[in-house]
Design brief:
heterodimer, A: mainly alpha, 10 helices, 0% strand, B: alpha/beta, four-stranded mixed beta sheet
Chain lengths: 251, 167
């Protein structure tokens, strides 16, 4: 497998962690209470840490002198390969938790497969990530239940988020050209095979949370091809502000 | 399953490494933390490999700089690399490190099963580092840093951090 294809594959995995980490970082100091605020930003930190490991490896593979910062901050929107789910805004706490829960369940299944990659670095990053993401999933699953099976208002808001974000879940299982190549050569994961376990786990938690699974059969896609929702531009302008305004600035 | 900590550390370098502590838990040296994988003098440079506790742990960059500074004081040039595999586990914290944690007011990690029971709130087994009561309650799965959970003692009413088990 060519380095360029592995790099693209890494973007497909790592950009999700970067963008979700960015969304969670926005909540720093804005969580509904202190403990939740700390939890969400801790999770952001885990995700950004994982992103750094992936990008450092991609930078090393590219061999053109690019650094992890170039990859994180200096690409244009179309070059980010994250799924649409993770870029959706923090409308209210119900959205934050539902988005997290929908991603965590996928994330853990993905890493559990990626740890078997024949690429030693990706396997090591996945093994490390599993320990962290297990905590994330526990946190978001617990909160799904607390919100869904909580007060009338929390139930209604959680259901609203589930109904709204559901259409972004199917994209997680689409195989891109780079996914195919990576899977064929033993580097990557066939995400389409994770689907059954994913919806089973999601269904179990939602049922316990007394929330209803939407019946919609229409799903939105595009993020993996770099075609993002309108929220992505705003997110990137925040994320990239410093490097764009003061090129090459360092801490 | 526990992965044994394999260390390759030149004996004469240990005293320098023991002086460096985790910036977020100053009572714990990086040796007691179990993050130093190897330290060997090759030609005139000491090559050190450390393993991160959590992927995003901001302490890692500081630890790397502290190591280089500590060796520089001894007029030794050092180079620090991060290694991810095998991933760090709380089993690598030494008995002396666990004791230092408790004295500092952080409950040391339980074993994997017990940890799960404690974090799910099924059993009251995390011991309060202030009064040693196990009548304690989890307040939040995430504490002041990613590696800790926040607990409260229901006897002496003090809040405290519990170092989560990581395997």
């Amino acid at each position: 497998m060519k380095n360029e294809n592995i790099i693209q594959y890494i973007y497909g995995v790592a950009d999700n962690a970067l963008i979700l980490g960015q969304r969670l970082s926005e909540l720093c100091g804005h969580g509904p209470n202190l403990e939740t605020d700390i939890a969400l930003t801790n999770m952001a930190l885990d995700l950004l840490g994982q992103t750094r490991s992936y990008y450092q490896y991609a930078a090393q593979l590219s061999g053109d002198g690019k650094t992890e910062d170039d990859i994180a901050f200096l690409r244009i929107e179309r070059q980010y390969k994250n799924v649409l789910l993770v870029e959706q805004p923090n409308r209210h706490f119900g959205y934050v938790i539902t988005r997290q829960f929908f991603y965590d369940v996928f994330h853990l299944l993905l890493l559990q497969e990626l740890q078997n990659s024949n690429d030693d670095t990706l396997s090591a990053i996945a093994k490390k990530g599993i320990k962290e993401v297990s905590y994330h999933q526990r946190f978001s699953s617990d909160w799904m239940k607390r919100l869904g099976d909580g007060t009338e208002e929390s139930h209604q808001k959680a259901q609203e988020a589930v109904d709204d974000l559901w259409k972004f879940t199917d994209e997680l299982f689409h195989m891109t050209k780079d996914d195919e190549l990576a899977f064929q050569s033993g580097v990557g994961v066939d995400v389409s095979k994770l689907k059954e376990n994913y919806y089973k786990r999601i269904g179990e938690v939602l049922e316990e949370a007394t929330l209803t699974i939407p019946e919609t059969k229409w799903f939105q896609k595009g993020g993996k091809q770099g075609i993002h929702s309108e929220h992505m531009g705003y997110l990137l302008s925040d994320l990239q502000y410093m490097q764009r305004t003061y090129p090459n600035m360092k801490w | 399953m526990t992965i044994a900590l394999e260390q390759h550390i030149d004996a004469n370098l240990i005293s320098i490494l023991e002086k460096i502590s985790d910036p977020e838990i100053p009572v714990l040296s990086i040796m007691d933390m179990g993050v130093v994988r190897s330290a060997q003098k090759i030609d005139d440079v000491v090559q050190i490999k450390i393993t991160p506790t959590y992927s995003g742990c901001p302490a890692m960059d500081v630890i790397g700089e502290d190591i280089i500074a500590a060796f520089k004081e001894e007029n030794i040039q050092a180079k620090v690399d991060l290694v991810l595999s095998p991933a760090w586990t709380t089993d690598w914290i030494t008995p002396r490190g666990r004791k230092a944690l408790e004295e500092y007011g952080i409950a040391a990690p339980l074993d994997e099963e017990a940890d799960k029971e404690a974090l799910l709130g099924n059993k009251k087994i995390v011991k309060c580092p202030q009064c040693s009561s196990t009548n304690t309650k989890m307040v939040s799965q995430f504490g002041s840093t990613a590696c800790k959970a926040l607990f409260k003692c229901e006897d002496c009413l003090e809040p405290f951090d519990y170092f989560k088990c990581l395997k």
